[in-house]
Amino acid sequence: MRKLGLIAGGGTLPLEIAEHCAQAGRAVFIARLKGFARPELNRFPGVDVGLAEIGKTIKALKRAGCQAVCLVGNVSRPDFKTLKPDLRGLALLPAIIAAARHGDDALLRVVLNEFAKEGFVIEGAHEAKSDLTLAKGPLGAVSPGSEHQGDIDRALLVAREIGRLDVGQGAVVCDGLVLAVEAQEGTDAMLRRVAHEIPTAIRGTPGAYRGVLAKAPKPIQETRIDLPTIGLATVQRAAAAGLAGIVGEAGRLLVLDREAVIELADELGLFIFGVEP
């Protein structure tokens, strides 16, 4: 197995992958992004790096003997004026800023290519830990009924369409009505908006669930670094918004804290369902 260089942003996913590597006997070295990476990652070999310290990151990964690189975790789009790049980051900054005008996917590709040019094999989170993605069919004991199929189809259609425009990855539909689409605020904020700002007359409520959250990757997406993701918070907020379930494309949706997610969804009576891409 290639030694893995894990460039870690926020959230639990970097920790899941690091722990998986340790259990599998795979050597791992973590570049912890300052202001984003969780402190639990400090117990693994690694280094703290700034968001624009591209040169420092590459040198550290090479010194550690890493052959593969995996970029994972939440990173909010920075204010480019406040970045403190090293020399390599400074040289790359104009290309990053230009790419950012075309969306997050274009920006990520520029960064990814910089590591690929140095000879690193780029791995997606789902490649570093193969059981992360949603499989086809129900995840857990609850399955969608025939009454949910129209909302599933429409929510996926809307999610894919906003993805085509590089707007976001998620959409909420109830009884055929589009209640919300995800943009830069993210899925959790979108679900909070549904729960607190959408009238209960046109959405479900806890105990009387209706509607669906769908998440799908953008057609132009670099799936090795930015697959759609759900976790415990997604299930909790979907339930609070009165939704009957969550759907995604099999093999193209990451599920964090899988066992806990299944337990919570079953307890709440929500379905999580994978469809063919």
UniProtKB/TrEMBL annotation:
Top-rank EC class of the record's enzyme: hydrolase
Keyword Kinase: no
Domain called LpxI N-terminal: residue spans: 3-131
Gene3D superfamilies the UniProt entry points to: 3.40.140.80, 3.40.50.20
Keyword annotations from UniProtKB, A to Z: Hydrolase
Domain LpxI C-terminal: 136-272
Highest taxon above the source species: Bacteria
EC number: 3.6.1.54
Protein name: UDP-2,3-diacylglucosamine diphosphatase LpxI
Lineage per the UniProt record: Bacteria, Pseudomonadati, Pseudomonadota, Alphaproteobacteria, Caulobacterales
Gene it is expressed from: lpxI
